[in-house]
Amino acid sequence: MKLLLLMSVASGCVALSFAWKEPWIGGVGLLVAFVAMFTDRDDVRLDDEKRSYETTSSVRNMRGKHR
Predict the structure, then answer these.
(1) Which residues have CB under 8 Å from 40's CB, separation 6+?
(2) DSSP track, 7-62
C-alpha cells in the first residue's frame, strides 16, 4: 500500500512539473519514486519460514539427489 501511495505522489509531482513548468517538482517526483522502489519490502513468507515440519519440494529434491 505504501508503494502505491508513494508512486502516485511521484507521478503527480512529475505531472505537475509539466503543468506548472517548474522542473524541480519533477525532480522531487523522481526522488520520491526512487525512494518508493528501494524501500518496498517483500512480505510474502516462504514455506520454510512458516515453522512447519514439511520442507519445500526443492529442498526435498536437493536432498534426494545426493543419496
Answers:
(1) 2, 3
(2) HHHHHHHHHHHHHHT-HHHHHHHHHHHHHHHHS----PPPGGGGT-SPPPHHHHHH
Q: Which amino acid is at 57?
A: S
pTM over 0.70: no
SS3 call for 67: coil
Q: Phi and psi for 29 in degrees, rounded to 5?
A: -60, -40
Per-residue pLDDT of 16-60, as tens digits, reads 988 888 889 999 999 999 988 888 776 666 655 566 665 667 666
